[in-house]
Amino acid sequence: MSRPSEGLDTAIEAYRLNQDVLRIARRVVDASDERHLRTTGFLGLAHSECGAELEKMQGRLDEITVMVLWSAFERWLIDHVTRVSTELPAVSPETFAVRLRDKIGAEVEFWRFDSILDLLKGWIDSDDVGRAKQIKAYRDWIAHRNPLKRAPAITDPATVRNVLGGIIDVVGGATSWTAEEPEECRST
Amino acid sequence: VMPMSDTEQVVERFVERTATLFREIEEWSLRTDLSVRRHDHHLPVDYGDVETGALELRRQGVLIADFVPASAYVIAAQGRVDVRGRLDRAKLLYFEAEPRSEAIVTDQAGKIVMSQSIAVFSGVREPGWYLIGDSHRREARIFDERAFFDTLAEISDYEPAQ
Known about the structure:
Chain A is 70% helix and 0% strand. Chain A has helices at residues 7-30, 34-37, 47-85, 94-107, 113-118, 126-144, 157-171, 177-187. In chain A, α1 packs antiparallel against α3 and α6 (126-144) crosses α7. The N and C termini of chain A lie close together (9 Å).
């Protein structure tokens, strides 16, 4: 059974694969295995420096994954709003309805995303809406990295996927999915 | 006299080799308009830290290069000195011998089908300090007077006045 949030899984699969690659790199570096480090920038580095590089890479990977998940979520929700705006109950006169629809379609991209999230309140658990806003704050922080601002509560990719995927699945119509998530994950 | 541990010997050798490098650089700089100054630099090692010093080259007060001992223990070499310039960086590695490692290819069952000893860095003929370029290139270039001036040109747009 397909879930509307399946699109987010590609990012998580890539994340897991990258983490495995980093894990292998750590083992090779720990073993000072020159055979496998040939033609890499790790040659000539001290162990502590290699560790720091890989640590930095892990952090970067987490951040990039959150950004990718966020973009996918944002795209999905904007497309969804555009889609449902064409299904609004008939408004008369029709010319007005068409103009309203076109205006939503043309301008939804420029709405403050927080205000789109607010439309979901009362439908989606308000804690989840709050979490989505925190993830957005984190994503903004990664993108702009204002040194004067403190980093928002760090959110790991798996949590981000669950929160955003949960919202997509409820909004997209698979209302029963959130409660059954662990089982479904195992069976697929 | 207490016998030195392996670690201490490695560090001791690194400090000596760094001092030799610095003496050479001072000599090469003599006939130029560069002013050379040694400054304090402590290198953290397993048993505390050692004073290696660092070497700073300036022309009319402008930094041309700073040679800073980075580590006595590095992968595939026997120590590293980092060179910082005005525009770029470079690194020097010390090799006691040509660094070689086994390149192996296995089949799907894990059986070795090809095995060959291959140079980790090419161009290492004798023990000494070598200039290492881009991380994906394998060439190591002996750090002689020519390499020294080439490095200064690359990292700081410096050429000795004619």
